Amino acid sequence: MSLHNLAAFDTTVDDHIAVVTLKGPGKGNSMGPDFWRECPKLFEALDRDDAVRVVLLRGAGSSFCYGLDLLAMAGNIAPLVGAGAGVAERARLFSVIEEMQRALHAVFRCRKPVIAAVHGWCIGGGLDLVAAADVRVCSAGARFSLREVKVAMVADVGSLQLLPHVIGDAATRELALTGADVDAARALALGLVSQVFPDDDALFAGAQTLARQIADNPPLVAQGIKQVMNRRIEAELLVGLRTVATWNAAFLGSEDLTEAIAAFAEKRAARFSGR
Asked: What is the extent of the structural domain holding 100?
């Protein structure tokens, strides 16, 4: 796969550092069909590229990622969760969720260490993405939100499985159950990020320095560190991903999901009924 001419990513490789920039096409680099199709292929290509020793992941524009592009993905998902959805539709929904999981699991599985540099908003699927990275840093203006609960979804592409190993079980439950926003200071206190930089320019410069430090180390050793640490949790991760895919295939098609999508499109507060 060529690293160029992608709809959702810009990628450059220089002196063993691959810089991958989320670029949309949705607002705030939101994750539409292009993202889910291209992400696994891109990270598999980076994994195979001997010129790449470390990957620096960042977002274009004013934010890292707004998360799932609900409107762009509605055409893929809506027919599978509507009132008339039956067994065949639920089986297809399970497959769609697994395909999306594979996209972010490719970041986790990539043998090259991945640094996520977060500025602005990192919401929902964006947080799933950075949870799959090895190192997370942010600027002082960064904001994080595990917001799937606000759109009547159980987060299903990795954050519920990976974040407990990063910030602990209690903090993950709080973020998942409230959908609350977390600022950079709390993200640092929780251990979600390892460094906070004063502004976006300092963030990208600091992330580049961090990438340089990793790239200058023996590449096979760096890859070995990642693989050994991943192996500690990979079996649990895969079981958790299958569990949440099964849950959402059964229960995602609720009246509350329809209400959440309508409220999002109409830019109003959702009114949930528990049905």
From this structure: 9-199+216-266
State pLDDT tens for residues 20-31. 999 978 899 999
CATH of the domain at 28: 3.90.226.10
User: Is 156 within 8 Å of 101 (Cβ atoms)?
Assistant: yes
**Is 260 within a domain?**
yes
Are residues 216 and 53 in contact, defined by beta-carbon separation less than 8 angstroms?
no
Give the chain's radius of gyration (CA, Å): 18
Could you give the number of structural domains in the chain? 1
State pLDDT tens for residues 140-188: 999 999 999 998 999 999 999 999 999 999 999 999 999 999 999 999 9
Q: Of 57, 62, 70, which is closest to residue 31 (Cα–Cα)?
A: 70
Question: Is residue 210 domain-resident?
Answer: no
Q: Is the separation of the CB atoms in 31 and 128 below 8 Å?
A: no
Rounded to whole angstroms, the Cα distance separating 252 from 154 reads: 8
